[in-house]
Amino acid sequence: MTWGESLAPMADRRFRWFFASRAVNILGTTMAPVALAFAVLAIEDSPAALGQVLAARSIPMVLFLLAGGVVADRFGRRLVIQVANAVCVVTQGLAAGLVISGHAELWQLVVIEAVNGTAAAASFPAMQAMVPQLVPREQLQPANALLSMVRGTLFAVGPTAAAVLVVTVGPGWALAVDAATWLVALLLLLPVHVPAPVAAAGASVVGDLRAGWHYFRTTTWLWVVVLGFGVINAILAGAVQTLGPPVAKDTIGIPGWGYALSAMAVGLVIASVVMLRLSLRRPLRAGMLGCLFYAVPLLMLGLDPQLLPLLVAMFLAGAGLEVFAIGWNLAMQENVPDEMLSRAYSYDALGSLVAIPLGQLCYGPLGEWFGNRPMLVASSVLYVVVCLAVLASPSVRSLERSPTPRQPPIDVTG
């Protein structure tokens, strides 16, 4: 791929507005987890309490994902994203006000995160499925790489900025910035128009769900990867999100944890730049091999956390995860029919995320019983086993890029 081909998606004004909207939103979103984690720990210094707040977001997101996919395919992906943006402006603004004023209580953050999880359930399938409506098929890899590049760049900035705000003026201000970015993202998406969805005659919501389930269960590479990531995401949610902050607080410090997350984001950026020039022939095989790198920082956190080696390990982990993310989106967007894509992403998200609340809720108590660091070591071993099990499937290893060209999307301006 030449640089001209790599940047071709930016020639479409709709993709440029979509790109800008995603960039602004990601900036605030990357700050929110760090701010929220230390806001909770300031209220109640317990990994179990942090796990409860994180699970409060994950549980409704899992429960409503399938409905979100159907709604996006039926009523339009742009509309669903805009409604979700508006909801998050209100909820994150409320959370910021409570934390800044010093009146935040644990149950309040639980309720707010539950609402945010519901909004995410609706917007995630729509957001992922919108890219093929904006660019032709031959531009899908550079389009996904460009979005990944800005995401990785802002992942490098956001956690560190949030950590600095937590240390200097408190976690509430990072949440306030997040609320503002949802509003700006909403406004930037207004000029983006895509073709209206065409509902099948006589189709019902239940019928749409059944059609999506049939496609999911009969597509082997799809359900194998999703099943594997059900376990992988539970491990990462419990080990990294729940045990990571308290272990970091006692070893490398709060700023050090922000640096580690930022190092992972730098790895995301570098990998996305490489993916602008390097075509993936077998996207899932490359992606799952890349995922293996995350076992290293898990092991290091459990054995002997040292800042500089951990930064290197997190950098490699981020690069590996980015290769998987681009490979996965290519596999989905090139091989799943467009009219089924939001539902396929919703089944993907449901299967991949369903165990996250379990990990968030269980890792805190398990860390208290067995020790946080022994749990991290055990998690690194289990993580490798799951990645290798997914790679053992021939349908995953051998899936190639789809050669069928996609016609350029219709520019709907009304």
Task: Give structural attributes.
globular, Growth Hormone, Chain: A, mainly alpha, single chain, about 425 residues
Overview of this protein structure:
The chain is an all-alpha fold and 414 residues long. It has a single domain, classed as Growth Hormone, Chain: A. 80% of the residues lie in helices and 0% in strands. It is built from 17 helices and no strands. Helix 3 runs parallel beside helix 5 and helix 6 runs antiparallel to helix 10.
**Level of helix content?**
over 70%
What does the radius of gyration come to? 20 Å
Roughly what is the average pLDDT, rounded to an integer?
81
Q: How far do the termini sit from each other? A: 34 Å
Largest sheet: none
CATH topology: Growth Hormone, Chain: A
Structural class: mainly alpha
Molecular shape: globular
| Low-pLDDT residue intervals, each spanning 5 or more residues | 405-414
Task: Give the strand tally.
Answer: 0
Number of domains: 1
Name of the CATH class: Mainly Alpha
Instruction: Count every helix, treating DSSP H or I runs of 4 or more residues as helices.
Output: 17
Looking at the chains present, what oligomeric state does this protein adopt?
A: single chain
SSE string, helix = H, strand = E?
Answer: HHHHHHHHHHHHHHHHH
Strand residue content = under 5%
CATH superfamily: MFS general substrate transporter like domains
Name of the CATH architecture: Up-down Bundle
